[in-house]
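Exercise 3.2. Students should predict the tertiary structure of the chain below and write it as structure tokens, then compare their answer with the key that follows.

Predict this chain's 3D structure.
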Amino acid sequence: MAAPVNIVVGSFVWVEDPDVAWTDGEVLEVNGEEIKVSCTSGKMVVVNRSNVYPKDAEAPPCGVDDMTKLAYLHEPGVLENLRSRYDMNEIYTYTGNILIAVNPFRRLPHLYDSHMMEQYKGAAFGELSPHPFAVADAAYRQMINEGISQAILVSGESGAGKTESTKMLMRYLAYMGGRAVSEGRTVEQQVLESNPVLEAFGNAKTVRNNNSSRFGKFVEIQFDQHGRISGAAIRTYLLERSRVCQVSDPERNYHCFYMLCAAPSEDVEKFKVGNLRSFHYLNQSNCYELDEIDDAKEYLATRRAMEVVGISSEEQDAIFRVVAAILHLGNIEFKKGQETDSSEPKDEKSWFHLRTAAELFMCDAKALEDSLCKRVIVTRDETITKCLDPAAATLSRDALAKIVYSRLFDWLVNKINNSIGQDPNSKSLIGVLDIYGFESFKTNSFEQFCINLTNEKLQQHFNQHVFKMEQEEYTKEEIDWSYIEFIDNQDVLDLIEKKPGGIIALLDEACMFPRSTHETFAQKLYQTFKNHKRFSKPKLSQSDFTICHYAGDVTYQTELFLDKNKDYVVAEHQALLSASKCSFVSGLFPLLAEESSKSSKFSSIGSRFKQQLVSLLETLSATEPHYIRCVKPNNLLKPAIFENSNVLQQLRCGGVMEAIRISCAGYPTRRTFFEFLSRFGILAPQVLDGSCDEITATRRLLEKVDLKGYQIGKTKVFLRAGQMPELDARRAEILGRSASIIQRKLRSYLARKSFIVLRRSVRQIQAACRGELARQLYENMRREAACLRIQKNLRMHLARKAYKSLQSSAISIQTGIRGMAARNKLRFQRQTKAAITIQSRCRQYLARLQYMRIKKASITTQCAWRGKVARRELKKLKMAARETGALQAAKNKLEKQVEELTWRLQLEKRMRADLEEAKTQENVKLQSALEEMQLQFKETKAQLLKECEAAKMAAEQAPVIKEVPVVDDALLERLTKENEKLKALVSTLEKKIDETEKKYEETNKLSEERLKQALDAESKIINLKTAMQRLEEKLSDLENEDQILRQQSLLNTPVKKMSEHLAIPTIKSLENGHHESEEHRANEPMSAAPTNKLGVESDNKLRRFHIERQHESVDALIKCVMQDLGFSQGKPVAAFTIYKCLLHWKSFEAERTSVFDRLIQMIGSAIENQDNNEHMAYWLSNTSTLLFLLQRSLKAAGSPRRKPPPATSLFGRMTQGFRSSPSSANLNVGGLDVVRQVEAKYPALLFKQQLTAYVEKIYGIIRDNVKKDLSSLLSLCIQAPRTSRGNVLRSSGRSLSNNSPANHWQSIIETLNMLLSILKENFVPSVLVRKIYTQVFSYINVQLFNSLLLRRECCTFSNGEYVKAGLAELELWCCQAKEEYAGSSWDELKHIRQAVGFLVIHQKSRISYDEITNDLCTILSVQQLYRICTLYWDDNYNTRSVSPNVISSMRVLMTEDSHSAVSNSFLLDDNSSIPFSVDDLSSTLQEKDFLDVKPAEELLENPAFQFLHE
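Answer key:
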């Protein structure tokens, strides 16, 4: 509703229009509440004051990028701002932190390239133009800095561009989080590659879009603790399952059905599908094909996409077999069976489709028929089979089709997630929600009801977030906001989903009663919600109902509500498909134990829908939300068409208008103090006099105009709704009065007398009119106050009455329910206690009875068994007494075994001593023999014990045989003696066994000790080999040293004297670079005896001494050049010294050396401190000079370059140098030539490459340091500093160019001068200095130009003058630095120079396009010119940009070039390459420059470096 504003004649306003929603016009007459408006369209309308909105006449023609900056935040203002920006290809606009994206229906690749992502990386939200990258960057930064998971909610109707926006968000997040590669594809690519699969099975044609997503998608991008992408997952919500069975005309079913019917002929035959018009699930609508869509090609593309996401060909066949089975299920029709209330397939055609579906499901056809036509009810006593009538069988068929398709879709999602990969350890994520928007059609069924419920829940979440943002803004500005009320839609949510009593609960209740119809359901709704303010009943319908949603009223038709809400989980269906021979189908329906005992279980789609919605809201509540609202500008899906009514409806459905209402509840108008004083300072000019600050001036101005209810923050002034129009009306009145004064003076000069008469008449008329207006206004205010009081009291009475009635009813119901529950609970507790007592007594009796029976049976069994065992033992003893002879034979056998065992032990000892390798096998044999012997011993011992017992029993029975002859007594004595002998033999065997065991243990210990000794010996051998290798290396060095000493002796002393003391052996050179060792020469005939031995010992000492001296020389060189040696004759001393030493040591000609590695390490450690430009410049001078010397000296060897084999040490190479040129003892390098060409080996060439890399690295470090220092200054130089409002008013005639820009620009000049001074002091080659400044100026050009194109506040006339003055300072610096160092740096600023030159032109509207492109801005592209022209605004003289014809010409050219991604890019790229080569250095330096260079003074004093004097 429009806030009451002061409308006067001449005001510009917005009025409603049935064709374009809102149109603007000028007020011609004001008659009380009636206002006459002349519209810009030519219409003349009379409207009520309450239906009029004020228009901001000073709003920029290209709109504002953040609609919270609008002077009037209302519906027509928002719509006009979006339209004006859309006309200029600005498709993104902020509303606070909400991004509104209008689909351009054309390719704009320049908005999404990598350079654009680089621009938004790390930029503060709102600093650059609105963009999805800004939203994604804000979410990513908040996740990294605060550790809170984020969610980006992308919503809008079909065709609004939600999917494209989601892709852009994921691209930017992948750019920020790195490339998490999995099987050659990034996570983002894998998620995008899953889109064709999900679209084929989850998208369908609707009334508004040919490819509408009938499910919600939430993509979770997971990050690790370092902010890198570690995984992703796709969560789907709210799949529209009822579409499988019921399709409205002219919509279509899911795409996969039509693709399958258009598949190749072999697939059509395989899956037994045919003409799609013959299937019931498809022919309910007359739409079978889509324009410009080939289902056959889409089928093949979907199969390829399935392969990409990891679905095998067998699984693909199974998937489409299930899809075909669903189509055949839909063609099964039923008729009445022979029994009552039974059903069966209608005809042969139905039987054919049933058998085909069973074949595709790979299940039994009879079982499929029974699952559709019968139900099994399991009771406590029996199982009852119930037949279904044809209608119930049809519902069972549809339920089976829906549950199969739903589980197939869930399987696809899980498969895709497994292919992408998830990170279970991820603690933070960024989720992107892509879900359908609010829907309102001519016919709205159960699907629209569920979708709109989703949007109501999301809208509540959105409102809470917007209100929270408003609170944060107010808290940040430290203003009072406690009295602001929050607009909520909880009453609508309670109406739909409250339990019990909500629409969904009543629908579920109606579905559970078999005789319920949609009429009874509608009547139940009418009775329940007849007094609900959000629910109403249409007048001309008996079964429809209307809900007042946040986006408007929607009328729903209940005809199919009950059928679409039913979702039976039938046990017969579960059992049928889980028993399928196809593993894929049975995997979709795993058999659950809890379902096997139930016949069926009713499930409501509405309830499941609500549960999924709760899960989604819980996920979103755990994250920090960000919002992108996608808008479709027209239903024709064509560019450059903006339909106001269509866009306005989408803004309402997207909640943007709701957010504006929330803002209007607080302080919708916010202006910085500078902007506020600039606009309204004219209301009280006296408050701007003096030196008061902006806050004080603003407060005094508001007090002067007597405005109430405003708030003054820290940086802004906050105005309530309606206060901005009031101030504008006063401002317009003052401006009008000023215009009147000017006109009065002019007309006074022409006809003073006539003017005085007219003025008097005008004043009288004005007095009468104002009095009448005041009286009318007073009367209206009285009436309004009286109406408000009457309404308030009436509403209070009605609300209190309804509340009292509801309260009493609720208390009565609660009392009865609670009492009944308490009684039931008490009764249950008593029954439970009694049952427990009975069970305990019964179990006690049964346990005791069982125990007594077992005890009695055990005693009886034990007695019987013991008697049997005793009789058996007696019988055995009698038999043993008769077999004494057998016992003697056993004894002899045992003795032989003992002897054999003894022999084996001795043999084992010999074998262990001789054959250590067979130790383990023999131990095993010995152990097995010992076990056998012990076993035999035990058996013999047992037999002896039995014999003794038998003898004792025979002795006890002696009285019975007293009459036997004496011979029996002798036999008994003999047996006794034999027993004693056997006992002695047994004891002897025991002793031998013990001895054998001891010997075995000793042998085992001995073998272990020998094994340890062998291992120790092996380790000692390895150590000895290592030591031998080290000694061989030392021996080689000693030989080299000996050779050096001998060569020096030959050069410095006569040969005759040398031969008297030492015999010089001839050293034979081997192929690998080493020399023959003493061991090789030991086999040769020795000509010198003791004298040679003494000579070798002295040679070893000399070698060792010389090696140490050479190591000291290299260390001295490294230590010396690490210091700052300065410069000699303008050349670096360190580089020259290193070169001279390497040349003297013949290092360039060596096959292998470590000197180059040490130099490279020294340079790397020296440049670790990269922030010190002076230090970097010193090493840039040294490395570049050394590289120049190497470039002139080294030439590649004639043979092909190869990696050399191991070579001699440094001193061995020096020996080779002496041997190759024995006459070069003085090392005079070619007369006066400083640089001498040598044939370089591999190490020298590699050192040159490494040195080149270090020169480029140091160059890049210095360049990047300068860029880093300039980046903060450039951000300040692009925008002119603001002066206080008082100064502006007092000196408005002066140009901003008089304000000195030197503060920031002078800092840039000082930075450039400081760098030039450092480079000069360190004698950096001029070519490198020129390249550095060329790239630095190119960086300045890129940063200033890109900032100009990305920030609208920079494209102003005054800002152009400010930047132009700064560029003049840079031009002056280039002239002073001279071309030797500045080079072509000034030419690098050509883009910003031409752009600034265009900004400061006064009469732009008179310039043609040809003049701009040919004369003014020859280097700028069409996209860049278009961007500057559309962003331009004059903050000084209020001049306009170029003419609309020029803008149209640019737009046409841009449209023609839209196919080229390069031509569409309007931003510049910074060049970070290395712009020079080694040849450039060679052309700068000359060899003769080094003739007078002196080496390091510190090394000249070292005797080892005497060659540096020469």
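Discussion points: The longest strand covers residues 21-31. The chain has 48 helices and 32 strands.
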